[in-house]
Structures are given as C-alpha cells and as structure tokens.
C-alpha cells in the first residue's frame, strides 16, 4: 500500500464559471502524486493545444487571454472543460467545469401604469434574463426607492410591492437591471393614488400567488403572496404535506412574502399561501412548488487496493444528490468497458474485477453527475507480482463420472514448485458470469479432485492455480466438460377405484422429475408374472383409467418416467376391487320398485294417522285437566261447608234449640235412637261460649238446612269428640229460592273454642 501523498489525485479542480466577453479567464487545476506528472486540458472532450488565446500555466491552470462567446470562425470559448493528470501509475480526469459567457437580454416584462385607491396595494414587476442573474433595483421619480420604508418591499425577481397606499406614493417608477455583462433600464410606469380609504367590505383576494421554483441548495427562495380585502386579510403559510415549515432561515418580507435562506433538499415541497378575513373562516389560497436540487456528492469514496494476480478486486463508490446522480467508471481516463471479468453492479456503485492480471493495474475513477453538478473520486489498483512464483499447473483434464460428478486432474507446474502450499480449483458453469465462480482448495500433494453436486447435462469450466505464501501462479488452461444426462426421478402415484372393473391411476408433475419425455404405465394380476403394457403417456398427462379388470383378484400398477437417457425408477401400487364390490352391494341393495312404492304409500298413511292420534291425545289431556281442576274446586267447597258449624244468637237458643250437624235439639230428642237426653247445662259446661259472643246476637244454623225444608232435616247423633261449635259474625242472610232465610258459610274464621 502507498501513502496518501503517493496517490495521483486532484487538490484543486476546475469549477463552473461565467466569463465576461473579451476578458481573461483562468481555470485552476492542481494535482499531487508521484512525479513526474503530466497535465493536459480538454474542452468538450477534445484536447486543447496551447495557442496565443489559450495556454497552460506552470502550475497546471489554463489561461484564456480573451474570452470570446463567438469567434469569427464560428468557434466559441464556451463549453465543458476538464483537467487530466498522468504519471507512471495511471491517469485521472477532473470534474467537468461548465463555462458560460456573461449575457443580459432585453426586458421582456416592463412595469405597467396603475391606479389604486388610498389604503390599497400596488405591485410593479419587471423581468429580464441574464448570466449571472441580474440584480434589479427600483427608482421612483429617477431616484432610488427608499428601502427603509416598511411599506415598500423589493423582491429579488424584480417585484416592487407597496402596501397601505398614501397620496405621497404617487409617482413614476422604473427598474434598473445590472450584472457583469451590462446595465439596462426598463420603461417607466405611473402610479396614481385616488380617493380616500374605502370602508366598504371586500372579500379576501390573492392578487399574486407563489410561482413554481427550481433552485440549488444554499440558494435563497422567495415565495410571493400579496392579498387585498377590507378588512385587510391576514396572510399565512403552510406546507401541503402538513410538515412544519420551521423557523431557521425563514423570514417574512412585507405583508406576506415567504423567504427561505440557505436552501436544503428538505425544503422541497408545495407551499400554500392563505389569505384569511380576520375573526372568520373566510379564506382564499394559492400554492406553488419549490424543488431544491443538490449536486452529486460522495457518501463512500473508492479506496486504492493491492491484490495478487488471479484474485478479485472490488471498488465501491456511493454518491447522493437530488436528482439521484448517475455513476460512470473510467479506467485511466477512458470509459470502462465491461467484460467477462469486469462487472458493474448495484446501479454501477460496485466495480468487480475477477482474476486480475498485470493489464488490470490502473487508476479507476468514479464520476457522479446530475443536473445540479458533478464530482469525481479515484482509486488505484496495484497488482502484486512476486518473482519466483510457480508457473501455471499443467495437463488439466476433466472426465465425466456421472450426471452429477466430474473428476478433474492436473500435473504440477514446471517451474518454482518448492514453495507451493496448495492448489485451488476454480469451477463455474460455462453459461454463468464470472462472478458466479466458486473454488475448492486442494492439498499440495493431491493432483486430482472429484467435483460433486453438479447439475445433469450441464457444461462446466475448470482451471487450476498453484499458491505459495507470496502469491498465486497464473491460471492454467481452461477445460470445459459436460455432465452426463440423468434419468427422471420416481413419480408419485395414486390409485382410485372407479367401479368394479375400473381404477384410475393419477400422478403429480414435479420439477424433481427433471427433463422427461413421458411416462410408462404397467399393470398385472399379482399372481401373474407378465405385465400388461407399457402404456406410453405424454409428459403432460397426469391420469389414466385402467378398465376391464377382474373384481375377484388384486392388481399391481407400476408407473415410471423416461427420457433420452433411459427409464427412471418406478413407483408401484397394489389395488383390490373385491372390497369395493362388497361394500357397494351393502350400501346399494337391489331396488324393488313396487315394494318401495307400497312402503312409501304405507308410510304416508301411517304418518297421517299418527298426526290425528297425537292431536286427539292433546285435546283429551286439556279437557281432563280443565274438568279435573273444576271438580276439585267443588269438592273442596263441600268439605268446607260440612266442616263449618253455623251459630245462632244466644237469645234464640231456648226457642229454637241448639243446632248440631243440621238438627235442632228438639228434633234430636224426638229421634234419638238410644233414648239418651243431652243435658244443656253439660253442653254449656263442655263448650262454653266467649263473653263477647254471648253479648252478640248470633244465630247458629246448619248449612244443610239451606237446601232442605226444616221438617225434612236429617238428624244424626255424634259423639262429643266428633263435633265442634263455631261462632261467627252475623252476615246478611240471602233469600233462598223458596223464600226462606239461610246463613252464608263462614270464610277464614277460626273456632272460638273447641272440645
């Protein structure tokens, strides 16, 4: 490796410039590196010969004594200039410098007369083209406009804005354009300020919105926006993409013009100017795009490298810019032509040189160019070659062993074999590019190598290098040989039973089959030795039906793929149709159509009868529940009436007697079968009445007396422990159908006393 000072490189390169007619021009070029160094200049790719008008200075710079945009012979000093430097190791070319003549055209836009009411906005504009960009100043009544007045705004593109007009602003205006080529004056325009300030409401309106601009980084952009309205609208700026405009380098000129200093690529975008009526959402907008270009610059420079003969050299050159730059490679100042061993990848950002030799030693340059500018970077490739390296291996032979294997053999070099530490076999498909090559290392005592895992029917190239600790020999002669063809692989086979005499063989196409011409299908009864077939099928066929089979035996089916190299291995399947026939008989018995029809009719009748029976049962159940519930209610009512003992007032007991179970005491005395007398005092002692009940006049009557005349009441004698006397509150006695009174049954009254 060499130090930085030994590399041939540019210290100063020529830059773009604008030259003045008939004035001298100097283009600078300074180079460092190992001497001797020769410097030459080119214009538009043609070598410049020293002459009285243009010659090279001692420091390598180019001097043009009198720059001419157009000479008498039709030639011009305008164009693209570059500087070339060369030494023993190579040649480098500088970036291209664009030289243009300073010019100025006539004004193509002049200011126009204007009549504006007081308090309004006036705008004058003049436009002119020139190189470099002319500086435009404004004069009022032949005197420079006072730029200290905040109401006067001068924009770089030749625009004058006057806001809040007053009577003293009236006058005659014109502009003056100046650059190194010339000075020019525009026509005059009169401004008239009329009347007083109007108070009539006016909607916001944008008089002039921003223009589309394309600038370069570090320049200044001015986006114009001037609005009118009453009340005076508020002007604001935003980006269409919603990103913030920021504050650094941002300035507002006048009442609404946006100025962005020191442009960067991030400033590119669409800018929106909005004029808002104060206190409302009424607004008007205008927009313009800003495109910021950036000259090409390197993110990663190529680095000088030293590599032994036969190895690979790789240079990397990464550049950025806006628009993205185009990368071009030079070799010793000439456009690099790609070949089998010189490749460009990754949009030309990577240069690879395979199997380098002495002829590849040179200076390689990376040129990055776009519409905003160009740049270059260089690197040197040094090819290491040591004395006493082995000569190339001899007698390289390659023999095909199989469809995937080749054996390569060779003999040791003729010279300088003592320091050999091993051999490297270089392998590549003959149709592949050089970068697809791979290597296999072999010991120094081995002179043959079995190369496996190759592809069938494919040509491969081989060459050998002998290696020492100081480097590699030159490559041996290249030998090319092809692998054998390969028979197809085994196909996948599936058997499907169609019916009792037919099966279907299906298989799937696969890339594993390789190149095949078709398929062969065989089948036989397993107890026989002879196959039926082969049935030859095309390569695109994937199914075949085997018919007229015997359902009582087992069959063997065999399928294989074949090509011009022979038959591949077969796939075998066994199939029996007997189980299929038996299963079909069980699942599908013979059809007795008359019986089935009769069964269908019977089934239909049975369904109808079943529905009627079901409905009838439901109706009977409902009726049973209804009548059963009603009978239970009546039964409960009778039981309550039988268990209830009605009472009569104590004052009536002597007259009517005590009623027990529907009979008066008098009746009971007359009809007592046992002749026993019931002592009233004993009853009162056994069943005393409560004092409260004695004070009330209550009648005790039998519930049974309601339904039978008094003289027909049946009297029954009960033991004392089988009856009770219950007194209840008197209720109104309803009239029975016969006109007699009856006591209502007692409800929810417990016994006053029980015995």
UniProtKB/TrEMBL annotation:
| SMART domains, A to Z | FN3, IG, IGc2
Which residue stretches does the UniProt record annotate as biased composition, category Basic and acidic residues? 664-674
All copies of the Ig-like domain together span 8-100, 105-192, 204-287, 295-382
The subcellular location is: Membrane
Give the start-end ranges of region Disordered.
645-755
**Which Gene3D superfamilies did the record assign?**
Immunoglobulins (2.60.40.10)
Q: Which UniProt keywords apply?
A: Disulfide bond, Glycoprotein, Immunoglobulin domain, Membrane, Repeat, Signal, Transmembrane, Transmembrane helix
What the entry lists under InterPro entries is as follows: FN3_dom, FN3_sf, Ig-like_dom, Ig-like_dom_sf, Ig-like_fold, Ig_I-set, Ig_sub, Ig_sub2
Q: What are the transmembrane regions? A: 607-627
| Annotated Gene Ontology cellular component terms | membrane
Sequence ranges assigned to domain Fibronectin type-III in this UniProt record: 392-486, 487-583
Compositionally biased spans, kind Polar residues: 645-655, 690-717
Q: How does it sit in the membrane?
A: Single-pass membrane protein
User: Which GO biological process categories is it annotated with?
Assistant: cell-cell adhesion
Query: What family does the Swiss-Prot or TrEMBL record give for this protein?
Result: Belongs to the immunoglobulin superfamily. DCC family.
What is the protein name for this chain?
A: Immunoglobulin superfamily DCC subclass member 3
Gene transcribed to yield this protein: Igdcc3
């Amino acid at each position: 490796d060499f130090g930085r000072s030994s590399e041939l490189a540019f210290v100063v390169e020529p830059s773009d410039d604008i030259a003045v007619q008939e004035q001298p021009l100097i283009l600078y070029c300074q180079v460092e590196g190992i001497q001797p160094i020769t410097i030459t200049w080119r214009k538009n790719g043609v070598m410049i010969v020293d002459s009285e008008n243009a010659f090279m200075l001692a420091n390598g710079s180019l001097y043009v004594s009198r720059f001419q945009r157009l000479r008498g012979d039709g030639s011009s000093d305008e164009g693209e200039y570059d500087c070339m430097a060369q030494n023993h190791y190579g040649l480098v070319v500088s970036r291209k410098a664009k030289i243009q003549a300073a010019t100025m055209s006539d004004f193509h836009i002049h200011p126009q007369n204007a009549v504006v009411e007081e308090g309004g906005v006036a705008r004058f504009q003049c436009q002119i083209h020139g190189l470099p960009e002319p500086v435009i100043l404004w004069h009022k009544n032949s005197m420079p406009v006072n730029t200290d007045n905040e109401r006067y705004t001068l924009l770089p593109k030749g625009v004058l804005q006057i806001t809040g007009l007053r009577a003293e602003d009236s006058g005659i205006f014109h502009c003056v354009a100046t650059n190194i080529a010339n000075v020019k004056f525009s026509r005059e325009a009169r401004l008239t300020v009329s009347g007083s300030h109007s108070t009539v409401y006016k909607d916001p309106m944008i008089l002039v919105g921003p223009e589309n601009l394309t600038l370069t980084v570090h320049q200044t952009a001015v986006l114009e926006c001037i609005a009118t309205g009453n009340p005076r609208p508020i002007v604001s700026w935003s980006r269409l993409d919603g990103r913030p405009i920021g504050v650094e380098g941002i300035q507002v000129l006048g009442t609404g013009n946006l100025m962005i200093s020191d442009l960067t690529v991030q400033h590119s975008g669409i800018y929106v100017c909005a004029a808002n009526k104060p206190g409302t959402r009424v607004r008007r907008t205008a927009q313009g795009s800003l495109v910021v270009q950036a000259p090409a610059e390197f993110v990663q420079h190529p680095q000088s490298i030293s590599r032994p003969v036969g190895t690979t050299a790789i240079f990397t050159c990464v550049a950025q810019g806006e628009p993205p730059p185009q990368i071009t490679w030079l070799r010793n100042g000439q456009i690099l032509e790609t070949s089998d061993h010189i490749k460009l990848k990754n949009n030309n950002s990577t240069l690879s040189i395979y199997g380098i030799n002495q002829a590849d030693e040179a200076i390689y340059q990376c040129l990055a160019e776009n519409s905003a500018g160009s740049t270059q970077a260089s690197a040197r490739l040094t090819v290491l070659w040591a004395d006493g390296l082995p000569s190339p291996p001899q007698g390289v032979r390659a023999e095909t062993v199989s469809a995937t294997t080749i054996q390569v053999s060779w003999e040791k070099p003729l010279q300088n074999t003592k320091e050999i530490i091993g051999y490297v076999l270089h392998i590549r498909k003959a149709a592949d590019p050089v970068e697809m090559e791979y290597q296999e290392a072999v010991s120094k005592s081995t002179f043959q190598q079995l190369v496996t895992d190759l592809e069938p029917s494919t040509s491969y190239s081989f060459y050998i290098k002998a290696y020492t600790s100081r480097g590699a020999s030159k490559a041996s002669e290249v030998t090319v040989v092809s692998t054998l063809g390969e028979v197809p692989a085994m196909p996948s086979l599936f058997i499907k039973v169609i019916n009792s005499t037919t099966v279907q063989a299906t298989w799937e196409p696969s890339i594993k089959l390789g190149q095949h011409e078709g398929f062969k299908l065989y089948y036989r009864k397993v107890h026989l030795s002879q196959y039926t077939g082969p049935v030859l099928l095309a390569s695109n066929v994937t199914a075949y039906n085997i018919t007229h089979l015997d359902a009582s035996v087992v069959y063997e089916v065999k399928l294989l793929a074949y090509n011009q190299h022979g038959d591949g291995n077969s796939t075998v399947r066994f199939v029996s149709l007997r189980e299929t026939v038996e299963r079909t008989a069980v699942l599908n018995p013979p059809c007795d159509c008359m019986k089935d029809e009769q069964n269908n009719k019977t089934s239909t009748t049975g369904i109808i009868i079943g529905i009627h029976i079901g409905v009838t049962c439901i109706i009977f159940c409902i009726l049973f529940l209804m009548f059963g519930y009603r009978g239970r209610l009546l039964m409960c009512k009778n039981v309550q009436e039988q268990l209830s003992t009605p009472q009569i007032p104590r004052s009536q007991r002597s007259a009517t007697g005590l009623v027990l179970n529907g009979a008066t005491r008098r009746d009971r005395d007359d009809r007592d079968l046992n002749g026993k007398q019931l002592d009233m005092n004993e009853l009162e002692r056994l069943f005393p009445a409560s004092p409260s009940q004695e004070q009330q006049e209550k009648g005790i009557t039998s519930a049974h007396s309601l339904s039978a005349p008094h003289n027909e009441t049946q009297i029954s004698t009960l033991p004392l422990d089988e009856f009770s006397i219950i007194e209840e509150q008197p209720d109104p006695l309803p009239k029975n159908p016969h006109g007699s009174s009856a006591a209502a049954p007692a409800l929810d009254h417990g016994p006053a006393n029980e015995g």
